[in-house]
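Re: folding output
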Amino acid sequence: MSDVLPRAEAPQPPSYPPKTPPPPKRPVEPPRPEPQQRMSYGPPGARTAVAARGRMAVTMANRRGANWTLDVRPWAVSSAPAKAQRLVVDQLKGWGYRPDTDQVDGLLDLLVREAIGDGGHRISVHLADQDERALILVMSHQGQQAPADDGFLTRLAALGVASCGVDTDAEEGGRRRWALIELRPAP
């Protein structure tokens, strides 16, 4: 008698695709940096540490507002002040004011040209009104600003603004320049 051994069959491929591994989980968010200490200079010889906090965002709440982003690359620089002037004056007229166009034109020319001086590819112009006053804010979005011009606020105040200011934050990049002007309602 011969012993017949059964022949092993070749393994059959599965009739379904292999199971794919699940995608990797999102990495854990790194911890947020602790606020740094900045040195604030007071009277001569006195140095005090002040806790630094992030620059507050521009917030316009409970009032009308508008904003525009302007391209200030080399080929568009010459038209940016005029475009900002036209946009702001048209918006103020749309809100029912009679703006002093000479004042607004001079103001925006100065604000926009200073923002262009910071470098970068764009600036933004923000406008808000409340109680027959308008806030015009121009922001440069460039981390490496030109040095601050000491006479800028003096020239801005000479244009008859109610209030004005400059805010710079080198960590986040950008500089905010703003002016508050009085408006007359349209008859």
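--- second protein (sequence, then structure) ---
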Amino acid sequence: MAVRIGIVGEKNAIPLWDRERKAIAAALAEKVMPALRPTLPGELLPERYPWCFVLPPLRKKGRFYTGALVKDGAAFYTAASYSWLQEELATNFHIAFWLARIMATRHRARSSDISVQGWLKLLQSRYSPLRERLLNDSYKFSSHAELLLAGLCDYDEIATEEKGVSRMPWPGWPQTIAADSAWLWRQSRYGKIIDSQQIKW
């Protein structure tokens, strides 16, 4: 499925998408941020270590939203159907994981020659099979993804592959996203879950 990645805090030229961005920003600011608390394992993480999230539809029969956020209110997101998101979240290296890794690059003086906007464009191409096929290898996300798995913050440097768990703590994940809740978690660069939280909607 082709995805469109939005950025909370950045105005969109298309009015419909700008309304969507404002609705997501409001939901994050009013419902998610005030309730966001690190669990015991998460206390070791720096406050600006990104969270992955899934939000329920913000309007009747709407789509779900998944992405990454940090405590200062910055967020990247994309809208997705329940069926697509369920399949996507069944893997460790899903779109929310990659958005969190891109979010982590914001605090690096120089993580690579690729800007945050450049990373987001590369990631969008990854989810557009036709476009990905047409691109030269040097413009493919897969050719650069390894850079996002490098140490992007102090925690990345001390985290080992053994830290964290490989399964979500919620029974029936990812089918459980259908419940009326926001789901948040943090993953190490190895894809392991190191913090998680459910916020009732």
